[in-house]
Amino acid sequence: MSRLLQDVVGELTKLPGVGRRTALRLAIHLLRMEPESVHDMTRSINRFRDDVKYCAQCNNLSDEEICPICADPERDHSTICVVEQVADVLSIENTHQYRGLYHVLGGVISPMQGIAPSDLKIDLLVDRIARGGVKEVILAISTSVEGETTLFYLMNRLRQFEGLKVTAIARGIGFGDELEYVDELTIAHALMNRREVE
Amino acid sequence: MSRLLQDVVGELTKLPGVGRRTALRLAIHLLRMEPESVHDMTRSINRFRDDVKYCAQCNNLSDEEICPICADPERDHSTICVVEQVADVLSIENTHQYRGLYHVLGGVISPMQGIAPSDLKIDLLVDRIARGGVKEVILAISTSVEGETTLFYLMNRLRQFEGLKVTAIARGIGFGDELEYVDELTIAHALMNRREVE
Q1: Which of A26, A33, A45, A63 has the most B C-beta neighbours within 10 Å, making it the best mutation to test the interface with B?
Q2: Is it true that domain A74-168 has CATH number 3.40.1360.10?
Q3: Contact at CB, A85 and B48, closer than 8 angstroms
């Protein structure tokens, strides 16, 4: 096998979900792309990795010191939605339903993976709330074991702020999900949290 | 959304099987990699695209004028296995069962996609056989409509070589495949080509 191909396959398998087979397929595809198009891609990858910054307030990706969401006076600065990662901000923004701010933890507490609360931007969140003006914190953390651990840890840390409303996003059956394929825990939760239909 | 992130997501979706969601996941992963590791990856992608060469004899990827397989005196130079693409060479090499040479067509004939026989390395194959020394050509082409078209076209072109044995790889039920999930055409083929068990 060509050494150049071997190298690129080895490098591409660094990416998540990319095994040797996929890496090979991607490499072969590169050959069909114009060299200039490949260069554009690698240049934007390097630039992204080298120049990306994080918002000093919410830890979201940002090209500036403060991200456009935190800097937007039109948004509701009294509400903070706490999420695990940058991708979650994008998912929520795509709904166009949320007008508050965010706080990106950068992961969840995971003793198994050696991620302690101090590895996450929790102190930044607490300091931010301590500066005042925040009325509600929405915890939009995943329902994994690690997510639940993080949720309880956050609830404990936020208890010090009297009058602060702390909420968690609703768990339930997703739109378009068939009950048959939904796990029991979710169904049980959805039953418990049933709402009267008007 | 950060402009740098937007750029990299747009660029990554150029890759096959990478939609916006996957591109986003890949981008977020890049942030967890060391910058030097990201640079190594992009450098090897650029080098692969810029410096890759094709074997002048068999059209396989090669770092040299003639690829290591064609240049290997230990291999059987009287047998040529014709495949669609570079990845197929790797698949067959991984079996460690084949000791002959290869010929990479670079695709299959596809009027729908505007791929004519002249777009493939078929003349190169014919010239190669015309130089003599080849006893058998194994056609290892996929069973798609385009593959069958290519197979028949090749058989026609190779008919001119008297005494040349032209074979096609066996079609049948794959190891580990359950009959229940195999398509009828394959089953019918496998039944027709049944072998006496010793």
Answers
A1: A45
A2: yes
A3: no
